[in-house]
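In line with agreed milestones, the collection of sequences with tokenised folds has grown. A representative record is reproduced below.
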Amino acid sequence: MLLAILLPFLSFIVRGKILTGIVCLILQITLIGWLPAAIWAVMSLNNSRADRRNERLIRAINASKR
């Protein structure tokens, strides 16, 4: 989470989203763009975590039906 706030572009690159990281870096280069880039990175990280959690829940539900 700290990485997403301090270096938003690096947060995307570490998660394997290279093109998104480059776009975020271009946005982050401007001082005004830093805040939107940080918000974008944090929201993307939270969405990614929620997606993984939902996938685990779906697998658990499907496994219990068998």
Q: What stands out?
A: The two ends are 37 Å apart (CA to CA). Helices lie at 2-6, 8-14, 18-29, 31-65. The first helix runs from residue 2 to 6. The mean pLDDT is 89.
